[in-house]
Amino acid sequence: MAPKLKQREEREKTVLIGLVELYLITGKPIGSNTLKEHGFDHISSATIRNYFAKLENQGFLEQQHTSGGRIPTPLAYKYYAQHHFNAADVDPKDIELLRKELNKDTREIARYLQNAAELLSQMTQSAIFLSSPRFDQDLILNIKLVSIDKERYLCVLVTDFGLVHTEILYSPKKLSSFSLKRIEKYFHFRMTGLERPKLNAYEDEIAAEFYNEILLRHIVDYSNFSAEDIYKTGFSKLLKFSEFQDASVLAKGLSLFEDTQYMRHLLEECAEAVDLRFWIGDELGRGTAHTSIIAVPYFIHGKPVGAIALLGPMRMPYPKIFGILRAFSAILSEMLTRNLYKYKITYRQPKTREIGLQTDSTVYLDQAQHLLLEDKR
């Protein structure tokens, strides 16, 4: 390539980067005079317009009105994101906040991860997805019952790691609120071995049945670990962006947010790549032309075990987000490694199994060994 041609193309791409950065700030179409006033006063307006025309022909820019300015296309955002892929500039205040909030010693790993996702959502004003392995040595701390109607009851299990599981249980006879309290005390007795509550004959029968049913379901759910646990939060924050004021755009974004299987696929792809990944606009499919997802893996003892993904509008400050995500991953990885070592917690990653007529029950028994059902400390 001739030196002059190469220099011209470099100037065109510099103009493209400048336009994208200005559009990220203003959200308004950028004209040649506007760009000239923002760092490009060494280039004439006519030359900038020529660059605009060529970039438009290449698919990087589009013009909504004949006399209006240009706006970036998904292709422009992809170029811009790739150009800043290795950005490491993070505001020291963001680093300080991450260290302050994430630097915690705790064995409540599930609650810690949920709080970490909430923090990242608040910092980036975006929806957050986080995949996680299954952590062992957990135990049930509490079991609560809530009446739904005269036959169904919502059972809520809270574990030592901060996980909350729910089950629907059935009773042929209606249970009063006093009966439910006594049955909860029975659960506590079974888990701790402390004083047994006084129950009538039916309460005693249904309490034992409920308890056995709950634990068996919990064992099956714990042992049948075929996909990563997913934590997600912050979808309502997208309403602050003008792009998501359109109901159809919001609905398509929501379809991504609620499709756990699809999100798992993206997070697995990121973890396997062992590096930051991004998908912009039509790369996500499903007509999500105004949406972007950025993901980064995190590690335990240097091994990738999950990923954190951010869902937001295509018009987002990619260099800043890249820097925050990488810093978040580094600190989260450090804290998880430290806490798992300190509290002697192990973890498992999902293994897919073929469904057949015969199953090896020893697999489930082996996995259940790590599940502490009752707290008798």
Automatic annotation (TrEMBL):
Listed under GO biological process in this entry are: negative regulation of DNA-templated transcription
Sections of the chain in a coiled coil:
95-122
Going by the entry's taxonomy, the superkingdom of the source organism is recorded as: Bacteria
Heat-inducible transcription repressor HrcA C-terminal domain sequence ranges: 112-321
What keywords is this UniProt entry annotated with?
Coiled coil, Repressor, Stress response, Transcription, Transcription regulation
Query: What are the TM regions of this chain, as residue ranges?
Result: none
The answer to whether UniProt assigns keyword Transcription to this entry is: yes
Q: Which GO terms describe its molecular function?
A: DNA binding
Q: InterPro entries, from UniProt? A: GAF-like_dom_sf, HrcA, HrcA_C, WH-like_DNA-bd_sf, WH_DNA-bd_sf, WHTH_transcript_rep_HrcA_IDD
Task: Give the record's family classification.
Answer: Belongs to the HrcA family.
Q: Briefly, what is this protein's role? A: Negative regulator of class I heat shock genes (grpE-dnaK-dnaJ and groELS operons). Prevents heat-shock induction of these operons.
Q: Could you tell me what this protein is called?
A: Heat-inducible transcription repressor HrcA
Which species is listed as the source? Answer: Simkania negevensis (strain ATCC VR-1471 / DSM 27360 / Z)
